[in-house]
Design a protein that fits this description.
Layout (H helix, E strand, L loop, with lengths): L1 H7 L2 E5 L23 E4 L11 E5 L8 E6 L11 E3 L5 E4 L10 E10 L9 E8 L11 E6 L7 E4 L16 E8 L7 E3 L5 E4 L11 E9 L9 E11 L7 E2 L4 E6 L5 E9 L11 E7 L6 E6 L4 E6 L10 E10 L30 E10 L5 E3 L17 E5 L2 E3 L13 E4 L5
Parallel strand pairs: 2-8, 9-15, 17-23
Antiparallel strand pairs: 1-3, 3-6, 4-7, 5-6, 7-8, 10-13, 11-14, 12-13, 14-15, 16-18, 18-21, 19-22, 20-21, 22-23, 24-26, 25-27
Bound molecules: calcium ion (4 copies).
The site of one calcium ion has 8 residues, from loops.
Length: about 425
């Protein structure tokens, strides 16, 4: 069927001079038949001087009935116009410019053969031109940023980066080999590694410490041709934030504390104890949590944290009777609002994975300290509302006794500011501290 149809008339494409000659069985004469592989032209190669890159030939051409050839489609009679042109008489298809695969990777033209009266001599014939890639684009990086928890284990994934390469995907021309070429700060050597094939970045050393370096900048390199010496090189920047974990126990300015309270007084601040913590400020890793672990069985005191200053504020909440108690020994422990973490974390880049909490011995995440509280005897009646007052007086220049500050007097029985009291004054008797 096909042979009979073809036997009458033919449009022949000679694609890049590839012509398959075949003798059809049962045909009365030798026929040329085309196959229609994609015609392959390589980008950046100058074919404009070539007489033709393909041919259209119709064997319906006779001297009495000449045929004219045309090309249709993008690249011929549509944008980009006249990149491919055909000689209307010979059917030679020429190219007028150098191809760029990254602009257009394939042209689908149609060859047309018409008689001079405008009627079609043939059906339109597809002429597909595939543009072969060359490695003419270097890898490019955009800026990448990621994060990983400090103390993460070696091998913890941090992030994945990739370079863009405009050359043909899936070929060696766009196959990038990745490497890290610089780390800032240098520290004690490379802290991160990169998979040359995937661009995945991993923790190399488990000693990332936010309290030492809280961020790293990596210069990464990508070489196309899978890293071959003749490949193009691109470089990029990767920022890695080191996330805080609670790996520092809060500490105190002193090993032990002492304070004095007045008997019969309640609802007053006894002292403020500042917690020190190397972890990230204003987070639960830094925020101190105080608790009285011993000596407060009568619930005379409570302690709360001022989250702005990270101070434990010890308050006297029940009045003390000097006749019964003259000295109170409290044990206070300070820990963080967040659980303490020791040792390498096991997650890292994707979450707060923060290792195991260790709840014993020195790794409990707590610091304990004693507070010795002396009870002062005070004459019954009026007491003052602020028994703790830091004073700074130069004894050389001061005549004692001296009025340091006046206070409202509090009725011992009601706990309210006393009425009908003209003044109450704190006298500084002497000080040689
Ligand atoms: Ca490339
Ligand atoms: Ca290319
Ligand atoms: Ca901490
Ligand atoms: Ca930390």
């Amino acid at each position: 069927m096909v042979s009979l149809k073809l036997g009458r008339l033919f449009l022949i494409l000679l694609l890049c001079m590839i012509v398959v000659t075949k003798i059809e069985k049962g045909m009365p004469r030798k026929k040329q038949e085309w196959i229609l592989p994609a015609s392959k032209l390589t980008e950046n190669v100058d074919y404009t001087k070539k007489e033709f890159i393909a041919k259209i030939i119709s064997d319906r051409y006779t001297e009495n009935r000449p045929v004219k050839y045309f090309l249709k489609g993008p690249g011929a009679d549509q944008m980009p116009y006249n990149l491919f042109v055909v000689n209307p008489k010979t059917g030679f298809v020429r190219i007028t410019d150098i191809l760029d695969r990254e602009h257009i990777a394939e042209y689908n033209l149609k060859g047309v053969a018409k008689y001079t009266d405008g009627t079609y001599a043939e059906d339109e014939v597809p002429l597909r031109i595939h543009v072969e890639d060359q490695n003419d684009n270097q890898p490019t990086f955009k800026f990448f940023s990621g994060s990983v928890a400090e103390s993460s284990k070696t091998g913890t994934p941090v992030m994945q980066i990739s370079a863009d390469d405009a050359d043909e995907q899936g070929t060696v021309n766009s196959k990038i080999a990745y490497s890290i070429v610089k780390q800032t700060p240098e520290g004690h050597g490379p802290m991160f590694s990169i998979d040359r094939n995937t661009g995945k970045i991993y923790v190399k050393q488990h000693t990332l410490d936010r309290e030492i370096d809280d961020a790293y900048t990596l210069v990464v390199q990508g070489v196309d041709m899978d890293g071959a010496a003749h490949g193009y090189t691109g470089t990029g920047t990767v920022q890695i934030q080191v996330l805080d974990i609670n790996d520092n126990v809060p500490t105190l300015e002193k090993d032990e504390y002492a304070a004095t309270i007045e008997e019969g007084v309640a609802g007053v601040v006894v002292m403020k104890i500042k917690a020190l913590d190397k972890d990230l400020e204003n987070t639960d890793n830094w925020l101190a949590h105080f608790k009285i672990t011993k000596g407060n069985e009568e619930k005379i005191f409570n302690i709360e944290t001022d989250p702005k200053t990270n101070e434990g504020i010890l308050k006297l909440i029940k009045p003390v009777d000097y006749e019964k108690v003259k000295l109170l020994n409290l044990d206070v422990a300070v820990s963080n609002a967040a659980p303490f973490v020791s040792g390498p974390g096991d997650l890292g880049g994707t979450g707060p994975g923060l290792g195991e909490e260790i709840k014993h011995g020195k790794q409990s995440g707590e610091t304990s300290f004693p507070i010795k509280i002396t009870v002062n005897k005070l004459s019954k009646g009026l007491v003052f509302s602020e028994p703790v007052l830091p004073v700074s007086v130069d004894p050389e220049k001061t005549q004692f006794p001296k009025i340091i500050r006046s206070f409202p007097a509090v009725d011992h029985n009601t706990g309210k500011v006393a009425e009908n009291v003209r003044s109450a004054q704190l006298l500084c008797q002497h000080s040689h501290q």
